[in-house]
UniProtKB/TrEMBL annotation:
Residue ranges annotated for the Threonine/serine exporter-like N-terminal domain, each copy included: 12-251
Compositional bias of kind Acidic residues: 469-486
Membrane topology: Multi-pass membrane protein
Protein name (database record): Membrane protein
Amino acid sequence: MGDVHTRKVLDLTIRLAEVMLSSGSGTADVVATAQDVAQAYRLTDCVVDIFVTTVIVSALPTADSPPVTIVRAVHNRSTDYTRLGELDRLVQRITSGGVTVDQAHEAMDELTERPHPYPRWLATAGWAGFALGIAMLLGGGWLTCLLAAATSAVIDQVGRRLNRIGTPFFFQHVTGAAIATSVAVAAYLYADLGPTALVATGIVMLLSGLTLVGAMQDAVTGYMLTSIARLGEAVLLTSGIVVGIIAGLQIAEIAGISISLHVDATESFIAPSGALPISLAVFGAALAGACLTVASYAPLRAIATAGLAAGLAEAVLVALSKAGFGQIFASGVAAVGVGLVATLISIRRQAPALVTATAGIMPMLPGLAVFRAVFSFAVDGDVDNGLRQMMSAIAIALALGSGVVLGEFLGSPLRYRAGRIGDFLRKEGPPGLRRAVGRVVRLRPAESHPTTGVPRTRSVALEPAPTDGPDDESGDAPDSDEAEKQ
């Protein structure tokens, strides 16, 4: 292929991997998408590997040339789902054929240098709306909801300024949790409001749902070391939340403020009763999911679908809880539904699956259980109940992460060759950003393409992998030397 072309393709794949990884995509997704792009440019021996935050792409040596390897560390995090959506469309164009490497680099330059689509104040308003929805979901009154929204806006602005001066994320979470707890204590003291909903809302805002989903997907797709590293990061950041809550409660205790929780501390989830409370909880979840996409700079068309996924997930959670199922099982089933809906939406190309999946599970993250566990440790001195609540929170979080991945696995056959249902849902063409579950695409034989007058730097199209059996629409068995994507 030539060293210049090889280096251009490798540089393109590592830039693509950097954007995906910084946005929270799973390791298997990044590897599969990068290899799709490399194969589209006929670099069939490209090796892509990721270890935590280090991306390695390499072209294997040949008889005439040494290996070419590029390594890049990804430290910056920039959750911009509009950028991720544009990258999704760029990958679709590349894997459809006809985009040169130079054109792809120009598109990547424009994509990475483009500012956020919304002003920063609108993202802060999105976090405020997210907190408002979570407070409604937890059954807070109107004053509690307004305080939760205002507190989340303050936490976002403070976190932004701390991030600007390079403060580690651990201390940002400590500060955010301390602010939420301090506001809850003041509301309890001066307005006689229960602190549970206020603190739990702040916890859900700070919990690393994106890291959790990525960690679970890495685990089930075989990237165990990266999964452990992501889980360790999630645990560390959650520990920062715990430290911030304890600090706020201890300051209140030193000031002589005695707080009592008038709830059953043995329960981590109490399903709402009655048509109005249930409707408010479902609406709150939908509002939280939609506002989270605004806070994450998602495309406008993704807002409604993300809100719908979050609302449906909460409705399933409440229904299963009313039927007598525990929160862990109910959360897992609801997360499976979120993963399936996210896959269907990505097939219709409304938004990448990661956007819908993250927005769908965030309202179900166990902020209430985390707060009750910390309260049992720091105030009540009930270690047994604190450990029980914390283990429940961990189990719920793992159920959510694994459930999303299972839902995507169940929905993956609809991407290609799934009969009339798949034909109805699917738009023509190859996938963009991959959710690496199951066989998806393979490289089409080069001789099947007219190559006269077409520069070799253009990409070749990727097509659906053929199915085995008499119903194979292509009618031809794949050649043994074709590079199939698993």
